[in-house]
Each structure stands twice: as C-alpha cells, then as structure tokens.
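One chain shown below:
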Amino acid sequence: MYITNKTEETVKKERLENQAFKTLCSLEFKDPLGEEIYVERKSIETALSHFLDSKPSQVYVVVGEKQMGKTTSVQKALIGRKGVVYVKPINPASLPMDICQSLGIEEANFGLNSIKLILDLKNAFDLLNEIFERLKLERSDIIPTLVIDDLVTTTFFPTEENIKIVNELVTAARYICADEKLCRVIITVSDGTAAAFLPQGFYPFIYSFS
C-alpha cells in the first residue's frame, strides 16, 4: 500500500474543485427576471435552445447592440439547466474571480490564499477543465455550459494587455468546447465593432441581432 503525502496546495485545490463540482451538480439556473415583462425573441431563444440541447462542438457568439435582448435571451434559454457557469466580467482581467463566484467559491469560505491559486486565466480554466472532465466521468447526464456575457463591449479599451487576455480566453474556451468536447460555450459581445477584437481565425457559430 502506498501512502501519498499531499502538499498543502494540492489539498486546497481539491477543496476548490469539490465545491465547484457540487455547485454545478446541484444548482439549476434561475430566471433572473421572474415575473418582469420582457420582449420575447423567439428566433434567438429557439436557436440557443437547440444549441444547448446539442453536444459540445463550437463556440456560439451572440452579437448585437446594447439593449437588444442578448443577455435576456441567453438567460431565458438557460432556465432550469444544471452545470451552468455564468459570468459577466467587469473587464477581461476580472474573469478568474467571476468564475470563482459562479462556482460557489467565495473568499469568506476558502480564504484568499486558496483562491489566489486560481486567480489567473490559465489556472481558472485548468480548474474548469478538471471539473468538466469529472462531470463527464461521474455525471454524464450534465453537459456544462460556460457563458461569458459581454466579454467585449463597445466601451472595451483595446490595450495590449486586454487584447492579450481576450485572445487567451477565447483560445481556452474553444479548447474545452470544440477540441475536448467538455462543455458548450456561449459568448455575447456588444456589436460588430467589439466582435472585431476576437482573435483572427476564430470562426464560431454567430447569431447576429438586427
């Protein structure tokens, strides 16, 4: 019998992964609008539902001006589904923390030293990759969905660092979706100008509002 002495960092990462796995298995996406009246957009909601019922294949990008109903349509299509990682980053650099919060990983429960382990883009996506692999093995009934809402907005400031982060993010999202087939990915961007900041050669399925 072999006894493995786990490092403190390994133990911390396992705790984070277990919390994230529990969150994705147990929580269903709730209707954020409730009884609030909104304008139905049947075409995009139907298209999104078909996409969410299919196996992971390609990133789905929704492009449209602000206040056109992109976010609402995506949220309506997600209602009742498990395995949803939904983030709306303030800016590209905030995405790792947004992912933590969506997975139920809070500083108050785990401490800053633990959360620091995944507070960069690569480590955050490594965590997602581990969880999605585990879901595939242990909960094949749940195919996770990663939603990045308003990744690039019309107020996006195209610094070299921001563009680098967006490129890394989209590359990582495409890897876990199109290459590894571990999850579906939906990205919304504010308009065609903002979409131009997505990496060259990135050809997802695109739904454009008009």
Observations:
- The chain has a mean pLDDT of 79.
- Strands lie at 60-63, 84-87, 145-152, 184-189, 205-208.
